Amino acid sequence: MKPYNGNLLQKIKEFKLERNAIILAHNYQREEIQQVADFVGDSLELSRKAADSDAEVIVFCGVRFMAEVAAILAPEKTVLLPDHHAGCSLAAMVSVADLRQKKKEHPRAAVVAYVNSPAAVKAECDICVTSSNAVAVVNSLAAEEIIFVPDKNLGSYVAKQTGKKVILWDGYCATHHCVTGEDVANARRADPRALVMVHPECRPEVVAAADYSLSTGQMFKLARETENETIIVGTETGVLPRLRQENPEKNFLPLSPKMVCPDMKLVTLIKLLLALVKMRTPVEVPAEISRPARRALERMLAVV
Ligand code: 13P
Fold first, then answer.
1. Is the pLDDT of residue 3 over 50?
2. Which atom of ligand 1 is nearest to the CA of 42?
């Protein structure tokens, strides 16, 4: 590592102590951000960590909806998003007005929000899910009819796994939606013995062609446990450096090199340092949104 980075890392450590801060990073963050973080995980793991931490400041290296979840679950803490432009194009595909209209059309349906949604949308929902618990959470509901926002691919997966009637929203994650069944077929042709694991945000044809559909956290677990030597990874490529580092005897290949989330890559070491020095950018959720959104999140956390 260059000395410049060494200085940067030292400064980050100093300011982190001074601010009584914890650095949380999503599995898609740049390698150097994952290395400097106190905790790296998937959406569910990060939500729990934010709620349980006794730090005064949470620097959330991820995207806005994740920082909002931290602010909702830990209202007494200051939550900072190092780059305030780090949004999520999937979360932006659902609005409160459109969801209210859909609820009118299906008054008996339970409303389930994927965490990749704005806080104001969570406030309109009965319960939240992440990719790691969506099936269990939907199975725990008495309702047989579900409005699922905003990811149609995860919604389809949930419908298939639970057998419930799921009213799908026309949203998708561009990073996951760009891969096709053909990409899986090509990867299998290249190495027929490889294990293929994909994220449930991928198209149904991709999920059907894969061996496993998993959250990013579950991918790390499977990577440790499987005896397969080659693993094709169908999610954002930010997971690859740590998968390789934790499992040096195994070979990890991206399902497609196109699977890069531009928002997740906005956070850099210098922005992380500036977040700590200048206490920016605070993410706050107004109480009238935070209260009902918190109910939906806590209901989820009570299930799994
Ligand atoms: P995970 O909860 O599986 O980490 O997924 C988060 C996400 O945003 C996927 O695009």
1. no
2. 4
